[in-house]
Predict the 3D structure of the following.
Amino acid sequence: MRIDIVSVFPQMFESPFGASIIKRAADAGVVEIALHDLRDWTDDRHRTVDDAPYGGGAGMVMRPEPWFRAVEQLQESPPAGRVILLTPQGRPLTQSLVADLAQEERLILCAARYEGIDERVREHLVDDEISVGDYVLSGGELPAMVVVDAVVRLLPGALGSAESLLEESFNDSLLEYPHYTRPPDFRGWTVPPVLLSGDHAKIDRWRRAQRIRRTAQRRPDLLADADLTPAELEERGDPTAG
Ligand code: 9D3
């Protein structure tokens, strides 16, 4: 996959992308990431990317011209990219959207700053608008990094094979079971005896029960999508179960 990122702060991406899985994936040729400075597509001496809002009001609005010039120039070289604007008004990023993005040959991520972006960019340049959650950040750069991290780890060859196997078994809408390692007694806090029993069927049952319990307690919204057996639904007291 090729990923182009357009931002007035392209340097923000360098350190996170120079470490961890994204670096490994780039080194392995799984992904190619190109950073672009939006100001390179301005035409005035001050490389201005914003202007006052029509209709008045506080704050500045990002001008349309640099965005159109940037994205149209990037699109001149194939393959065509899916153009994504990171914005608080976008559709929430979920693992299913991430999996969908991971199918693309190329993404063009637009990370904006300032109070807003000229509406014509959304209407006529962008294919998708994505938000990473209902809290206020100061720009689209961190959200773009979140999208890149979540997508790249799904690309074939990005994870080690052990990690890839784990990935498959965890896409079932349940939270993880509790993990323990040595020592068996740390400051008087002991490891659940079942994990030391060597009875793997019993351990599997315990972990499964822990996952369901934990999901019900912390993220009941996820349970609706979880693949529970009729017996597990019965235990949860679901009146629609078996
Ligand atoms: C304080 C300004 N807000 C007025 C209601 C609007 C606003 C504009 C720009 C709020 C945040 C931002 C910058 N954020 C993003 O560009 C952004 C974002 C976010 O803030 N939260 C979650 N996902 C995203 S994706 C892009």
Observations:
- The two ends are 45 Å apart (CA to CA).
- The beta strands are 2-7, 32-37, 50-51, 61-62, 82-92, 106-111, 116-117, 128-131, 185-186, 189-190.
